[in-house]
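re: ur question from earlier - yeah i can do the single chain one, its not a big deal. heres the input i used so u can compare w yours
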Amino acid sequence: MVNKQVALYLRVSTNAQSTDAQLAELRQLVERRGWKYKVFCDKGQSGANESRPAFDEMMQQVRRGRFAAVCIWALDRLARSLRQLLDISLELQRLNVDLVAVKQDLDTSSASGRLVFGVLSTVAEFERDLLKERVRAGIAQAKRAGKRIGRPPLRVFSARDVAGLRRERKLTKKPYRILAAEYRTSVWQVHKLCAKRS
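and the output i got, formated as tokens:
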């Protein structure tokens, strides 16, 4: 589409690096297509940072419908992890904003670009599923080894403490919230100890 407004996003990891080469290639691309553009540049910002000043400003304007596409020199300028890249790409897709990456020859406004994006999405989903399986396997192994799963309790109760807590609850009918404060533990723990029958 001629005369559409696009965002050019540039990023370098250190202040000593230059974005000139990125900008030159992106300008060639947008001028060849007849697009108007606005430049957003982050210097001294790692791609692993999910929040970057120029990137955040660009995304605010993207969400307001100011741009039809986001153009980058390479995918690693936008994000360092596949998950982060996919999250950004999915948001752009939801907002009907195309993503163009010069080095990867990716343009989601074209059929081939959408295919590449689909492959990336599938790989990322596969990676997420593998991670979930590894976490589940790790938890199961820890349980088999007798390790405690979850946060440790705020305090450990002796048999005498538990008996005193139950007695106080029975005699005074104090709310669990009050007892939790007095015994320096959680409401859930007080409820659990009072409900137990040993």
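Residues 5-123 form a domain with the Rossmann fold fold (CATH 3.40.50.1390). not sure if urs matches, ping me
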